[in-house]
Amino acid sequence: MKIGMIGLGKMGGNMVARLLQGGQNVVAYDLSEDNIKLAEGRGAEGARTTEELISKLPSPRAVWVMVPSGAATESTVMDLAGKMQPGDIIIDGGNSNYKDSQRRAKTLAERGINFVDVGTSGGVWGLKEGYAMMVGGDKAAVESLTPILEVLAPAKTQGWGRMGPAGSGHYVKMVHNGIEYGMMQAYAEGFELMHAKTDMELDMAQIAELWRYGSVIRSWLLDLTADALTGDPEFSDLSDYVADSGEGRWTVVDALNEGIPAPIITLSVQMRLRSQQKSSYAGKMLSAMRRAFGGHAVKKVETEAEESIVPEAHTPEAARPQNIPASGAKMDGDAARQLGETGHAPVNPNPEDTENKGAGNQSEGQA
Fold first, then answer.
1. Is 362 a member of any domain?
2. Do 125 and 264 fall within a single domain?
3. 208 and 115 in one domain?
4. DSSP 8-state secondary structure symbol assigned to residue 209
5. Exposure b/e, 224-259, CB count within 10 A at least 16 = b
6. How far apart are CA 339 and CA 197, in angstroms?
7. Which residues pair with 45 in a beta bridge?
8. How many CB atoms sit inside 10 A of residue 13's CB?
9. How far is CA 329 from the centre of its chain?
């Protein structure tokens, strides 16, 4: 099958490579000429405009969009919609909010164009291990993409499936990421508790490695944690700042809307928000109140902690904490984008309200 791929970053570039390795044909486009040339070097056909990409695809065409969600996805999908024909398929494989996906599907359906949303998990390991894909959209349109999905997945019949109508793929991926937040938080809290038990001289790396075998809490997240602990188990050079890309927040909002208790996911999101504060205004106020009513001693800030940013990694080896460089780059206005943490952008709460097109998370599809 021949497919177009727009967006050749951390996820998109590796997906192109996996498709080519699986015998599929890809026409690749990106704003970066270097990324296009890299894809061409792997065997893809390069395109320098969306018009050129579309012209190189057989009808009915299928174009996979793997760009930052929100404004970038909105403009890319609408640009393609104006150039493609009835019967063509536009696939959004990023981490878009499901309400935006429902709206886009409705808009494209009026033009006879199919919209398929694919919640994609796999990160930098996807090229080697395959991607888990939660697919939403018209059944016939999804079935026509089977050759592509089978190659991208860990196995032909494993790790992918149609969840339901348009928007359902991104909805299931949203909940997937909410669960991921809770699992990560539970591991982190447990290890911090053991780390604090200094009188027992517990070895974090030994415990993580032991738990990987036979334990009821063994998992791939634990495998990655065990590997990370073989380096500096104190994580001395890492800040405790934890970015959130939006899906956790959206899961909490949906749980509230549905009246479903989700305390673990909610608290895990709150912990990430607290980590993003250099200092808490609420904490300062509590300190002031204790001073005021009881004359208690308080701590005063003398110097602000300075942080730097290490750019995203594109391969499993580069992503290992052991391979984080000794010094990072200076934080700038682009830091939020690099950290993938613009999940606070407003989301259209009513997919049928096409005048309100605010979108959410700005990060490329990732787990």
1. no
2. no
3. no
4. H
5. bbbbbbeeeeeeeeeeeebbbbbbbbbbbbbbeeee
6. 32
7. 27
8. 22
9. 22
For 179-238, what is each residue's pLDDT tens digit? Answer: 999 999 999 999 999 999 999 999 999 999 999 999 999 999 999 999 999 989 999 988
pLDDT band at 26 (very low <50, low <70, confident <90, very high): very high
Name every residue whose Cβ is closer than 8 Å to that of residue 80 and which is 6 or more positions away in sequence: 6, 50, 54, 63, 65, 90
Residue 151: give the domain boundaries.
2-171
Radius of gyration, CA atoms only, the chain: 22
- CATH assignment at residue 234: 1.10.1040.10
Q: Which residues are catalytic?
A: 173, 180
DSSP calls for 251-270 = HHHHHHHHT---HHHHHHHH
74's tokens = 């909105």
Q: Supply 163's token pair.
A: 């969840």
* Relative orientation angle of helices 168-196 and 263-275, to the nearest 10 degrees: 70
Note whether residue 345 is domain-resident.
no
Listed in sequence order, the residues at least 6 apart from 168 whose beta carbon sits closer than 8 Å to its beta carbon are 98, 117, 134, 136
CA dist 284 and 86 (Å) reads 59
Q: Comparing C-alpha atoms, which of 237, 233, 211, 227 is closest to residue 320?
A: 227
CB 241 within 8 Å of CB 307: yes
Residues contacting residue 358 through CB under 8 Å, at least 6 positions apart? 345, 346, 347, 348
The residue with tokens 């070097």 is: 41
Omega before residue 351 within 30° of 0, cis: no
pLDDT at res. 362: 38
94-125 exposure pattern, b = at least 16 Cβ within 10 A, e = fewer: bbbbbbbbbbbbebbeeeebbbbbbbbbbbbb
pTM of the model as a whole: 0.88
Is 40 part of any domain? yes
Distance CA 251, CA 176 (A): 9
pLDDT digits 0-9 by tens, 252-310: 999 999 999 999 999 999 999 999 988 899 999 999 999 999 999 999 888 777 777 88
- 3-class DSSP string for 157-191: CECEEEEECCCHHHHHHHHHHHHHHHHHHHHHHHH
